[in-house]
């Protein structure tokens, strides 16, 4: 019986020649990624009590992003504890307030195709863009991994989502993700592995593929994965990653899929998710005129260089509507630097955008810029659950960076194509 | 175990279980905000040994383990749902909180008193006098509950890193 990409990676990590969906197997972890919120502050004490150290410091990547640049004393304490732990555990791959873990980790060449990788964060399927089997776990699960280097998985079925055709102007990976949330629901992934295929996927840039895999979490999948190709290898080479064998990790022809879903990129329109679920997504033309107080371009899903460039394309020669607030939180310092060098950053700030330092910002309701009572926000983030970005009476809509930028100019939710027609 | 049922709908997510704005607070404080955006009284009124019953996809969202930990903190004996978010499901067992899958939630209403037998999946609704069966919890996870969660298993490996625990 042939195997899917995910099954091949799990077999190898489990030291077996073959695994079947449903098997419960113990796997060796190639890479464990943790952040300041779910990482050291939750595991340090217990590890000390256990008298245990990290199994292999070279296989751990630690990123301070959730509490990055918050100035309250509790956040400062968490950041310091994170630093101390990194030092004590000899974690060289420690990125202190340099951006969001899902972005920084591949940016620095840590993710390689074929890896069995685990992240202490639910958006860890982002790593699937690089051909890793990467999934999110909670902190006790992570504690077990940090101490033993191993974890168990129930081998998931593979769900194939195929996107044919090509995206039109103003329509991007974020719209694809929201469309899938609407069509399949937040349990459409049923904690299985989604494998994205098709011309529309293959022609996405690496960072757009990351957006697609990232939001596999919103589909309730264990992970989302794209078989690596030349675009993947090129990104990794540039990031300084060393690929031993560019052997085209692909699914066998006779591999088994739980189900195959077909989508067409040709007729995809910009999507907006209404409060309080990404599954409430619909075509932007169906959205009634909504007055928005705050616009937010940020998060691992929506503040990579490609995302900031989309916003800049719209905001060039435009201004944020009077009385409205557009906040931009670049996903990493590297992205911030690149956007500063190529002029994107100054377009955004000249249009009136306020900058937050690289990191998770207001996305999870932890830091600067969180929403007050009854505020309405349109964000390029992944999740709009009730209370996610602050007050439980706030309302969050989701859209692509294009859509957020266009709407920031008009003050109401607006189809970005109105600004893109040339 | 037997207790009173608190019933919720589909897609109960981690942000309503453990809201981000209180995430820096100690777990005892975070627990008082558990599910408050859906039912302000829940954290106040739920008693040790009670059950949470829900529809599809319970615990979808973030990997924050506090979503399961607050329920444990409030004394919830088990969560029974039609399906679970995968990360929450792992977290719950790692913390020693049973997460049990039932295909149909019929015959159980909010306020009913039920008795759950984890090994067999038997749920006895003592209020209505009917019995239904949940899916059997896989062996490796039942093992986690018996040892008091993953921590209990790791404690047995104390000072012996790199040994298999499963
Ligand atoms: S940016 Fe938001 S979704 Fe991404 S890791 Fe940070 S908190 Fe999570």
Question: Could you tell me the mean pLDDT of chain A?
Answer: 96
Q: Might you state the CATH topology name of chain B?
A: Aconitase, domain 4
- What structural class do helix, strand and pairing data of chain A support? alpha/beta
Counting DSSP H or I runs of 4 or more residues, the number of helices of chain A is: 15
User: Which sequence of strands runs across the widest sheet of chain A?
Assistant: 4-3-2-5-6
Task: Please tell me about this protein's structure.
The complex is a heterodimer of chains A (422) and B (166). Chain A is α/β, with parallel strands linked by helices and 422 residues long. Chain A has 2 domains: 260 residues, Aconitase, domain 3, CATH 3.30.499; 147 residues, Aconitase, domain 3 (2-Layer Sandwich), CATH 3.30.499.10. In chain A, 32% of the residues lie in helices and 18% in strands. In chain A, the strands form 5 sheets. Chain A has a 5-stranded parallel β-sheet, sandwiched between helices. In chain A, strands 16-15-14-17-18 form a 5-stranded parallel β-sheet, with helices on one face. In chain A, helix 2 packs across helix 5 and helix 11 packs across helix 13. Chain A is globular, with a radius of gyration of 20 Å. With 166 residues, chain B is α/β, with parallel strands linked by helices. Chain B has one domain: Aconitase, domain 4 (Alpha-Beta Barrel). Helices cover 27% and strands 18% of the residues of chain B. In chain B, strand 3, helix 5 and strand 4 form a beta-alpha-beta unit. The relative contact order of chain B is 0.16. At the A-B interface, helix 2, helix 3, helix 5 and strand 7 of A face helix 1, helix 5 and helix 7 of B. Bound molecules: iron/sulfur cluster (SF4).
């Amino acid at each position: 019986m042939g195997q899917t990409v995910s099954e091949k990676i799990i077999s190898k990590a489990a030291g077996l020649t073959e695994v079947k969906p449903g098997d419960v197997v113990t796997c060796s972890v190639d890479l464990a990624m943790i952040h300041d919120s779910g990482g050291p502050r939750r595991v340090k004490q217990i590890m000390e009590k256990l008298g245990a150290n990290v199994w292999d410091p070279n296989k751990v990547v630690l990123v301070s992003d959730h509490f990055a640049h918050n100035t309250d004393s509790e956040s400062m304490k968490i950041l310091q504890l994170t630093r101390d732990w990194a030092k004590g555990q000899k974690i060289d791959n420690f990125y202190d307030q340099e951006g969001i873990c899902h972005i920084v980790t591949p940016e620095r060449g840590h993710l390689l195709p074929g890896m069995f990788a685990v992240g202490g964060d639910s958006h860890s399927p982002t790593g699937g863009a690089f051909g890793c089997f990467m999934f999110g776990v909670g902190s006790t699960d992570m504690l077990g991994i940090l101490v033993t280097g191993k974890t168990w998985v129930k081998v998931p079925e593979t769900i194939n989502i195929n996107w044919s055709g090509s995206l039109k102007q103003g329509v991007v990976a974020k719209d694809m993700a929201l469309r899938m949330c609407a069509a399949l629901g937040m349990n459409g992934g049923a904690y299985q592995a989604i494998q994205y295929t098709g011309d529309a996927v293959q022609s996405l840039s690496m960072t757009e593929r990351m957006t697609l895999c990232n939001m596999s979490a919103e589909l309730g999948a264990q992970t989302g994965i794209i078989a690596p190709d030349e675009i993947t290898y090129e990104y990794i080479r540039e990031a300084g990653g060393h690929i031993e064998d560019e052997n085209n990790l692909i699914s066998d022809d006779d591999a088994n899929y739980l189900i195959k879903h077909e989508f067409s990129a040709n007729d995809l329109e910009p999507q907006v998710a209404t409060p309080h679920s990404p599954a409430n997504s619909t075509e932007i033309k169906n959205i009634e005129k909504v007055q928005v107080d705050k616009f937010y371009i940020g998060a691992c899903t929506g503040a990579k260089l490609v995302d900031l460039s989309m916003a800049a394309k719209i905001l060039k020669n435009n201004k944020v509507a009077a009385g409205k607030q557009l906040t931009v939180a670049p996903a990493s310092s590297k992205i911030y630097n690149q956007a500063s060098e190529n002029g994107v950053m100054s377009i955004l700030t000249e249009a009136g955008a306020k900058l937050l330092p690289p990191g998770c910002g207001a996305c999870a309701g932890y830091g600067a810029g969180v929403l007050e009572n009854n505020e309405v926000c349109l964000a390029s983030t992944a999740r709009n659950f009730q209370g996610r970005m602050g007050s439980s009476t706030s309302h969050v809509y989701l859209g692509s960076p294009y859509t957020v930028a266009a709407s920031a100019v008009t003050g109401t939710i607006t189809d970005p194509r109105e600004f893109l027609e040339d | 175990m037997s207790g009173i049922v608190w019933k919720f709908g589909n897609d109960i997510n981690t942000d309503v279980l453990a809201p981000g704005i209180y995430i820096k607070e100690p777990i005892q404080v975070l627990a008082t905000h558990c599910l408050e955006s859906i039912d302000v009284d829940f954290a106040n009124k739920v008693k040790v040994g009670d059950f949470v019953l829900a529809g599809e996809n319970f615990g979808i969202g973030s990997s924050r383990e506090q979503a399961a930990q607050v329920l444990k903190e409030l004394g919830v004996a088990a969560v029974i749902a039609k399906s679970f978010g995968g990360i929450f499901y792992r977290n719950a067992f790692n913390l020693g909180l049973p997460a049990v899958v039932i295909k149909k939630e019929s015959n159980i209403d909010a306020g009913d008193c039920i008795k759950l037998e984890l090994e067999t999946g038997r749920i006895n609704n003592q209020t209505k006098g009917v019995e239904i069966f949940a899916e059997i919890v896989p062996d490796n996870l039942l093992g986690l509950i018996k040892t008091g969660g993953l921590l209990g298993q790791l404690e047995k490996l104390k000072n012996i890193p790199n040994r298999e625990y499963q």
